[in-house]
What we know:
By secondary structure, this protein is an all-alpha fold. Helix content is 38%, strand content 3%. Keywords: Carbohydrate metabolism, Cellulose degradation, Glycosidase, Hydrolase, Polysaccharide degradation.
Amino acid sequence: MNGLDSVQYTPQGLAWTWGGGQLRNVANAALIAQVYAKKLTAAGETAKARHYQCWALAQMRQIAGDGGRSYVIGHGNNPPTHSFHKAASCPPKPAACGWKYLNTPHANQHVLHGALVGGPDADGSFVDVRNNSASNQPFLDYNAGWTGK
């Protein structure tokens, strides 16, 4: 958290810990901060709890698009449309599906509503291209913290 750790932040205010798929760390840290805030509130430490709640909410809002773009497919402002996902990039049936569609410049044919991608670089830049798997690939573990309460 700002002032309490050595975590780097993007210019937009998103915590950034290391390379590919770093939003999983941010989402999971935000979930842990929310859980800890509930414990602090129960212990009567409401001011400290608010600090953790505000930090977690700010991070989740950045993920959802407050920094200028959403990193959640199908949600918010300017969400990713070229996720590195075979099934999402394939044409509708009855056309055959294959990895060759990963190299097309067109937006994915199928929207993975709610899937969280890896996220931006340390400088806050994000290029929505399918072959950038480190930034634009959704994984189940990315969504664990994003969907938790």
